Amino acid sequence: MPRSNATRLEPLPLLDLHPEPDDMLGEILKGLSSQPKTLPCKFFYDRRGSRLFERICQLDEYYLTRTEIGILEENAEEISARIGDGRWVVELGSGSSTKIRILLEALSTAAGYVPIDISREHLMEAAGRIARRFSSIEVRPVCADFNSDLSLPVDVETPSAGQRVLFFPGSTIGNLGPEPRLALLQRLRHFCGSDGGQLLVGIDLIKDVKRLEAAYNDADGVTEAFNLNLLSRINRDLGSDFEPDCFEHRAFFDRESERIEMHLVSTENQQMRIDGHTFEFASGESICTEHSYKFTVDGFVALATRAGWQLEASWTDDEDLFAILLLRSGATS
Predict the structure, then answer these.
(1) 81/103 Cα distance (integer angstroms)
(2) Could you tell me the sign of the dihedral formed by the alpha carbons of 105, 143, 158, 194, in that order?
(3) End-to-end CA separation in angstroms for the chain
(4) Nearest-angstrom CA–CA distance, 113 and 98
């Protein structure tokens, strides 16, 4: 097994493809200029935002994380047998790298692990913990936005590295609308290369609305703090003058679109400035900060099939709250 208690002292090599501040500014300005106003949810994850999200994952109301972990633990042996030995495992949006530990424990001879995350400090902390725990595998962190064109470390890109396994947990793919989701699945298929590969993806399933909405409106207000931290992050990184105390968190399920919508709602008439631009907010006007689509297994598989993936296996929990799918992309000529 790859597990080891040995301590690694050497620093991990980092492939740093983090978006430049000008890229972030452009996306923020575009979102605030749209109607209705939006902010990209990928900017939630600065250092504080990443830690707040870790707290969210431990909340009673937030069933997603513990349910997905339970599915992984119960089916780790079968999943690892279907993946096989000697693979590079690439995790998209790795966060605290909690779930990957279950997979790496089960994979007896994984060649290496590539965590990809947009929060540099959080990424390096989590990658360091994985490297210390699994000393027999190579760990190659990449700081990047996985929605952009991706590059991998040189030793992972070589033909001798073999087929890749992409691990995409947390139903993060639900943050994308139908067309961007299809485009991402197509890009991930091409990302696997001409030899093909596998995608192990977690999806949150459609369920009782009260349970869905409670997961994004926790009693302790952690999700509210996570949402409002986005404004504080923009102030710090881009010099804007948002007043977070003048916005409130709101999250609800849109039945027609089958998605949770998360918003920041202005509590008064106000304006904010950023890079010479001024934006007006009426009392009650909202900024949409996240969509989180919910799925059926059949519906998601139909979309993945359009992108060139084939369903190999699927697993769910006893209550059908969440599902993990293993998709395969065949070799291309």
Answers:
(1) 11
(2) positive
(3) 35
(4) 13
Residues 266 and 282 sit within 8 Å (Cβ to Cβ) = yes
One-letter amino acid at 52 equals: L
Q: What is the DSSP string of 130-195?
A: HHHH-TTSEE--EES-TTS-----HHHHSGGG--EEEEE-TTGGGGS-HHHHHHHHHHHHHHT-TT
The amino acid present at 283, given as its one-letter code, is S
The stretch 224-245 carries a mean pLDDT of: 97
Contact present, 104 and 89 (Cβ < 8 Å): yes
Q: What does DSSP assign to residue 244?
A: G
Mean pLDDT calculated for residue range 88-111: 89
Q: Which of 45-49, 101-105, 133-137, 249-253 has the highest mean pLDDT?
A: 249-253
AA identity, residue 68: E
DSSP structural state of residue 201: E
Is the pLDDT confidence value at 96 over 90?
no
Contact 198, 329 (CB under 8 A): yes
Residue 82 tokens read as 């279907």
* pLDDT-based confidence at residue 158 (cuts at 50, 70, 90): low
> Best-predicted range by mean pLDDT among 117-126, 162-171, 277-286?
277-286
User: How far does CA 161 lie from the centroid of its chain?
Assistant: 25
Which residue in 226, 197, 199 sits closest to 292, CA to CA? 226
CB count in 10 Å sphere of residue 251: 21
* pLDDT band for position 332 (cuts 50, 70, 90): low
Nearest to 31, CA basis, from 286, 287, 264, 249: 287
At residue 162, the pLDDT reads 61
Tell me how crowded residue 116 is: count the other CB atoms within 10 A of its CB.
Answer: 24
Query: What pLDDT is attached to residue 95?
Result: 80
H or E element in which residue 37 lies: strand 37-38
Number of residues in the chain: 333
The phi and psi torsions of 63 (rounded to 5 degrees) equal: -70, -20
- The residue ranking higher by pLDDT, 32 or 191, is 32
Reduce the DSSP state of residue 314 to 3 states and report it: strand
Q: Which two tokens stand for residue 220?
A: 């302790």
